[in-house]
């Protein structure tokens, strides 16, 4: 068994998983086809190719660490990412976001830490110069070493090169002792080695199991949530730790044709009353939708959707009960997302994962709000066609297609630390597929983890509430009569790894969620994984 296996165990909660692919890929002597030779350059010791890199460089894959503990830390990160992109750094992946206790100098505010993986044609010293200028532009000044700073940008890896000069050491000299640095690095990898460059990064760790073994030795996944290392998702100015308990998203449909409650809450007064009820029953998030996405629903234009949505949003954002709660908009239109966020919405929930209006990805990236990427094939009029219902292995294929959309969202400017994933229960799925998804969330995480460990750690949302497959199994034609079956489906989802449940009847499902949380806590304490 590969030494890093433990990092997955608390998160995924399934048996039989091994790191055979990793350990096979981590035969570092054969994976790293390029040996490291050193030579003396004007600025120090580099690989033999390095002497020319600052003059004319091909693209090199890089990893840059980000840290901040002064001012608006999230905004500091946003501005740093923007400036990096404008300065010749192509960002391809983001790690998760961590809130961490300071190291070395401990009498200072908590840090946010993350890392990005990307490519650049800048030579290493050019890159260093660019990063130092960004730090200066964002207000960093010379001060106490390891002390407070608005932004800290460090080159962790530059291609397959080892660099030792007066100005720059790569890999960064303190990587190996800092969990808040190693965790984001591991996030940027997949559980399979995807290039010689990544293999070289593993070899730099001086561990036979590469960076995974190093991370395990530092505490691994079991250290997340403890000892000053929290994985968080920023929502406005709040850092949300989704691992502590299951969160409840209450459904508010302001439509005449939704499958469950169409026409019930179109009037503003009725919508406000329903929001009050959902919150009183324990909802953490209110998901407002003004367009039905039931099978074969006719599509509204963005303007038509906004005509339904805006009056309701303007009313519910004024009621005192909403204070401290989160609002989500259920839309696949960029224009609707933009107008909703302007009116106080915190989350964009897109059933198409960017497929029906690709502009939404850029808009959400600019808005800086969390984005729910859901799996669906086709659109509501075609999602239940025979072609879209064909799966050989539904968990594996949903994971692959879902990750492709997550990756597109990242490349469009939405950092991974703002993404929530939804396997799309009830969308382009047969009854048997929905059951397999609810029972197979851990395998979906595992499949996604082959490409990106950060994406595999993203919060999972499931929404089986009152869906047709529950009616088929339980012989309940009326969607409202499917609430007891919804509780069972939600229970399966939570025990399988869901972090957010989207339901119509919050009160019925809250107790189920709390019991599941207690069971999961007991499982974690006792070390039982089934």
From TrEMBL:
Involved pathway(s): Cofactor biosynthesis; tetrahydrofolate biosynthesis; 7,8-dihydrofolate from 2-amino-4-hydroxy-6-hydroxymethyl-7,8-dihydropteridine diphosphate and 4-aminobenzoate: step 1/2; Cofactor biosynthesis; tetrahydrofolate biosynthesis; 2-amino-4-hydroxy-6-hydroxymethyl-7,8-dihydropteridine diphosphate from 7,8-dihydroneopterin triphosphate: step 4/4
Entries under SUPFAM superfamilies matching the protein: 6-hydroxymethyl-7,8-dihydropterin pyrophosphokinase, HPPK, Dihydropteroate synthetase-like
Any one Gene Ontology BP term: tetrahydrofolate biosynthetic process
Pfam families: HPPK (PF01288), Pterin_bind (PF00809)
Domain of life according to the entry: Eukaryota
Residue ranges constituting the Pterin-binding domain according to the UniProt record: 246-514
GO molecular function: 2-amino-4-hydroxy-6-hydroxymethyldihydropteridine diphosphokinase activity; ATP binding; dihydropteroate synthase activity; kinase activity; metal ion binding
GO cellular component: cytoplasm
Reaction(s) catalysed (UniProt annotation): (7,8-dihydropterin-6-yl)methyl diphosphate + 4-aminobenzoate = 7,8-dihydropteroate + diphosphate; 6-hydroxymethyl-7,8-dihydropterin + ATP = (7,8-dihydropterin-6-yl)methyl diphosphate + AMP + H(+)
InterPro entries reported for this sequence: DHP_synth-like, DHP_synth_dom, Dihydropteroate_synth-like_sf, Hppk, Hppk_sf, Pterin-binding_dom
Known cofactor(s): Mg(2+)
Protein keywords: ATP-binding, Folate biosynthesis, Kinase, Magnesium, Metal-binding, Multifunctional enzyme, Nucleotide-binding, Transferase
Family statement drawn from the similarity comment of this UniProt entry: In the N-terminal section; belongs to the HPPK family. In the C-terminal section; belongs to the DHPS family.
Protein name: Folate synthesis bifunctional protein, mitochondrial
